[in-house]
Amino acid sequence: MADALELDALWEDFHSVVNMTSAELADWLRVRDSGELTEPLPDDAGPPLGQHVLAILQKRRTDLTDGDLRAMREVVDTVTAQTDVENEPRSDDAGLRHRLMTVGHDPLKP
Fold first, then answer.
1. Which of 38, 60, 63, 103 is deepest in the core (most CB within 10 A)?
2. pLDDT tens track for 14-46
3. What crossing angle do the helices spanning 66-82 and 4-17 adopt, rounded to 10°?
4. How far apart are CA 25 and CA 6, in angstroms?
5. pLDDT by residue (tens digit) across 43-59?
6. pTM for the whole structure
C-alpha cells in the first residue's frame, strides 16, 4: 500500500482526470456496449478498467485496495498521456474521446 502522501496525491490526480460522475460513466459504459449481439448484462457493461473506475468512484479513500491503486495509476497515466492543455481532443475526434470516456474522462466536459 502507498504511504499517506502518495495516496493523497494519487487520489487527487485520479479525481482530477476522472471528470465523469459514476452515473455518467455507468450510462456511457452501457451505451458503449449496447448492440444487438454484444450487449452484456447492464452491470457488466464496458471493459474491465472502466468497470474498475466505476467501482473506485463508489469507494471511500480508506477502502482502496492495492488493485484499486494500480487501476488509478493506469487511468491517470492513460489520460495524461493522451491529453494535455494544448492537445485536448476536438469534438470531431470521436474515437479518442470515446476511449477516454471509457475510463471516466470526457475531454469535452468543462
1. 103
2. 999 999 999 999 989 888 655 555 555 556 667
3. 50
4. 26
5. 666 789 999 999 999 99
6. 0.82
By CB atoms closer than 10 A (0-12, 13-18, 19+), residue 72 is buried
Rounded Cα distance, 33 and 46, in Å: 6
Residue 69 CB contacts under 8 Å (≥ 6 apart), including other chains: 1, 2, 7, 10
The three cell numbers of residue 68 are 484499486
- Nine-digit cell at 57? 468512484
Separation CA 46–CA 102 (nearest Å): 7
Crossing angle of helices 48-57 and 22-32, in 10° steps, is 160
Cell numbers placing 22: 459514476
pLDDT (0 to 100) of residue 20: 96
